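Notes from hallway chat w/ T.B., transcribed later so I don't forget. T.B. wanted the structure written out for a chain they're using in a teaching module, and asked if we could keep both sequence and structure tokens in one place. Agreed to drop them here.
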Amino acid sequence: MLRAGSLMAWLGSRLQAPPSTLSRSLSCAQTKILGCDRVKLMESLVVGDIAELRSNQGTLSLFTNEAGGILDDLIVTNTSEGHLYVVSNAGCRDKDLALMQDKVRELQNMGSDVGLEVVDNALLALQGPTAVQVLQAGVTDDLRKLPFMTSAVMEVFGVSHCRVTRCGYTGEDGVEISVPASGAVHLAATLLENPEVKLAGLAARDSLRLEAGLCLYGNDIDEHTTPVEGSLSWTLGKRRRTAMDFPGAKVIVPQLKGKVQRRRVGLICEGPPMRAHSPILSVEGTVIGTVTSGSPSPSLKKNVAMGYVPYQYSRPGTLVLVEVRRKQQEAVVSKMPFVPTSYYTLK
């Protein structure tokens, strides 16, 4: 069954894998926000500037609570079909859906024109340097005109009504295909007929997103983390910062102008790989933070991780210690992404 989940394929050199792969995970929930007041609804829940999105343009944004904590990360696309297309984490599906449904009812009771529809589609992620080359053989649209974070509805290898979005959580070029459940198996099987395409599991996706410095909800960000602490200030729309009209703005906006107590940072070390929950220590041996994600980096041949440390330890180049298997080893605070991203933009 693919209808509630996603399939990721990898096409490229990272991971020392074939140029394309496809993997399956219960990783995304898909929703449509309808009505004339759809932007009003979404901007009452997220930190991003949804009103400024061009037709078929999307953005990564965050649901936040009044304390400034992150409830989930999501992608919002302003479709040319007159609705907002929302992709969020399946692990947060119930609370995200309840959050949006409650706001729909609230606005409807105030006379607003807004509605919500759950999209019962599968999501196939085709990722890697040759992903678009493989997909181009099955579509008539010119994918060279589809830059990063834009989407279009098209027929894909004979399956109608697919939404193809130039994005993916790997740091590489690629697409996510929202496909009607009835055509998901056919489309996945067709893609896998190409020798360039290989299945990739969550472990592969996890190392790729970590190399790209991308957060995993529940590990690197959660309801007790603000966007500024999580080094996600770039998700805050400039207009929204000025208006301070999103949940938690009274907490989050002042953090932009001052020092926060802790920050998410990248870490690089030699030796055994750092793992989630490993303590981070100062060079004097005092525990100052915790690793939230970590793994070997196939691209760098080193071990990389993310974690939280006090602000004064967040400068790149700062030397810290990480406890791995009850032994302390040196690690260096690093800029992210660890591996440069390869998103496709129009030149």
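Follow-up for T.B.: The two ends are 39 Å apart (CA to CA). Might be a good example for the class.
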